[in-house]
Each structure stands twice: as C-alpha cells, then as structure tokens.
Amino acid sequence: MDNIVAVAAAILYVLAIATIVPGLVQQTGIRVKTVFISAAGALVFHGWLLSDLIFATSGQNLSMLNVASLVGFIISLTMSLAMIKTRLWFLLPVIYGFSAMNLLAAALLPGTFITHLENEPALLIHISIALFAYSTLSIGALYSLQLVWLDRKLKTKKALAINPNLPPLMMVERQLFKIILVGNILLTGTLLTGFMFVRDMFAQGQAHKGILSFIAWIVYSILLWGHYQRGWRGRKATWFAVVGAMILTLAYFGSRFVREVILH
C-alpha cells in the first residue's frame, strides 16, 4: 500500500512540474490552479505515506530516508503555500522533484531507526526545531542559487525581466535574507535546546552534530552581519548560504548515511 501511495504522490508532483516548466521555457502563462491542485494532492499522499513510515507500532522510525522525506514535505508544503502570493516557479520544479525522489526512496528502500519521543517531549521539541531550521535554511540556499541565476541572465541581457513567471531580482534578494534570518533564529533555538535537552550531546559519535551545527550557525551569523553591516549580496551571499546548508547537511545526515547505508 505504501508503494502505491508513494507512486501516486510522485505522479502528482511530476504533473505539477510538467505544468510549470513549459511556462518557464516559453515565457507563457502557467496554469496556477492545475499546479496548486496537483501539489495539494501530492502533499496529501506524501503526508499519508510519512505517517505510515514514521509512526511505527514500536515507536517512531526516524531513519535517514524518512527524515529526508519529511524535510522534503516541509519544504514543499511551505513553498506551495508561498506560491499563492509569490512567483516561485523557478524553484518549485526542483523542490517537487526532490520530494518525489525522496518519498519513493523512503517507500522502496525502508530503513529502521526507532526512537521513543513520546517518552521525551523535550527531545521532540529539539528535533522539531532542528527540522524546521534545516528546512528553512535549505530554502534559503535555493533562493540564493535563484538569485545568482537571475543576476547572471540579466547581465547577459537575456531579457528575463519581462518573463511574467520570474520574480524581480530585488524581491528575491530581500526574501533571501529574511529566510536566512528566520532560519538562523531557528538554528539558535536548535543549539540551545540541544544543550538543554540532549544527553551527551558531545559524546563520542554525537559530537560532530553539535560542532558542525555550531559552525553553520557561525557561517550564517557572519552572512547576516555582512549583509546588514557591510552590504554583502550577490555571489558572496550565495557562497555563505550554500556552504552553511552543506555543513548542516553533514551535521544532520552525515553519520546516519555511514551507519544506515555504508555499514548496513
């Protein structure tokens, strides 16, 4: 049953992508209702699948693929809601494609990492904040890449400014730093709750998560300081945003990948 739900969600994600891409390439109108309905259906099936995969009878199965699929769901849901007011057409095919691949992998390549968060509500708070921090800062990395792409196309005089499906460059830049700011606040909350609620946070086998997360926090803090105090923007901001997201990915998934995939 899970495989059927995963395939149904993936098909709906692909339908949304197929509706968006021609409008970006040909600079024609995009059928917003079709995209929204397809994405909504995909998210319903995606959420249904996650509930089956994560909430096992013996606890919560937070395997690497399940967590990655959950991150994809959070990002897809957030950006689908933002689509109502903002032109996100350039990013949505990437996001929906990522979500489709992740949920198919989670359904077809099941893993096991059972936890018991019902007995540790404080740890649940920490994990929830961490997931939202990572999702928000991943969106920030995507925004930064979009910013560089738009800037490059405008400088090469590709006349993208008249494409009705692409957002204005300055609007993307403003949104980028708002997203980074919110994400860094959530990352701060992740670190604080980790110190308060996670036992042996810097014990052997666990230290890399806290250390890498703190390094990412420093990277994002420097970026925000540089932007608001020194006017950093463009490629410099993109490098900081992407490097910060890569460090967080190593922190959240690095050791899990080794244990669940390489050493499985």
Automatic annotation (TrEMBL):
Keywords: Membrane, Transmembrane, Transmembrane helix
Presence of keyword Membrane: yes
Pfam family, one: Cytochrom_C_asm
Transmembrane domains' residue ranges: 6-25, 32-50, 62-82, 89-111, 123-150, 176-198, 210-228, 237-255
Cytochrome c assembly protein domain: residues covered: 39-262
GO terms under cellular component: plasma membrane
InterPro entries according to UniProt: Cyt_c_assembly, YpjD/HemX
Top-level taxon: Bacteria
Protein name: ABC-type uncharacterized transport system, permease component
Source organism: Vibrio xiamenensis
